[in-house]
Design a protein that fits this description.
0% strand, mainly alpha
Amino acid sequence: MATSMILFFILLFTIAFLYASVGHGGASGYLALMALFSFSPDVMKPTALLLNLFVSSVSFIQFYRGKYFKWKIFLPLILLSIPMAFAGGLISVNAVLYKKILGFFLLIPIARFLFFKNTDPRDMKPANFYISLLLGAAIGFLSGLIGIGGGIILSPILLLLKWTNQKQTAAISALFIFVNSVAGLSGQLTKGIHFSADMLGYVLVAFAGGFCGAWLGSIKFPQTVLKNLLACVLMVAAWKLLWQ
């Protein structure tokens, strides 16, 4: 196996591990990684969404078992996000514009990993149904358009609004990512999907990383150094997409 492919698999495992540890499927990380390795946008979007399905599902199971999931907050978010993610998946974006949009949205997980702390239980606020509907619709559409599950956008918003703490955010984001990834992939299926010949290997490596990360993330686990390292990788990818 070529050295570059070994490095790709190591980074893929690490990204799945770190994202799953905070309840994310990892699509933005996979897209960043594929951008660094010069994958075609036609391959990047469906590949990221498919890997999302495996990693977000195992992440959700672990956080759900830890009793962090809140149906009352989750359901309004997905009422409009699912049809909007499907609609976003129907749209083909120019390759240059796609990379610029992706580069911009990579700045969100960088901020998520570097700056967002847990919410003080005394500061928690009840979720607003109508705001949840609007958020779900907007995030769902962007999810299908870019090829992400939307967790990188949703989770910092939930924390900023103080509707959830970090563990609850992780549980809600994981299932939100899963359903939006299914919807986005369904939209893309209507116009044809292209996968790499190594897709099975990607799935196995990402699933292994996601399983380990979700298990450790749902219990007490120091993540600060690892999150900072991932943020640095995402910064490099964002710079490449935005300015090269």
